[in-house]
Amino acid sequence: MKTMTTDELINLLDANEDLNVIDVREDFEVEHGMIPGAVHIPLGSVPERTDELDSSKSYIVVCKGGVRSANACEYLEGKGFDVTNLEGGMMAYDGELEFK
């Protein structure tokens, strides 16, 4: 499984790269802020919402600490998606947040 550090992600965000971030945390967790531009798909909803994803795109998957996002990455890789797990998740992320 591919991984990326939060520093790498922040550098890509700062460079205005076109990123596809999936946040698999629960509703109450994302209320505390999300990575700008991230799409919220709770882990339990990933199987029924894979049709919302484009298999030609790469995705960065994030959760609170990196375990649930790793599980989501394993599932999505098995479905043919190009995914990268964010190491340390939101606990390690100290970049800009967006609130929905």
Automatic annotation (TrEMBL):
Domain of life: Bacteria
Signal peptide interval: none
InterPro entries cross-referenced by the UniProt entry: GlpE_sulfurtransferase, Rhodanese-like_dom, Rhodanese-like_dom_sf
Domain Rhodanese, first and last residues per copy: 15-99
A Pfam match: Rhodanese
Gene3D superfamilies: Rhodanese-like domain
PANTHER family per UniProt: FAD-DEPENDENT OXIDOREDUCTASE (PTHR43031), SULFURTRANSFERASE YTWF-RELATED (PTHR43031:SF17)
Protein name as annotated: Rhodanese-like domain-containing protein
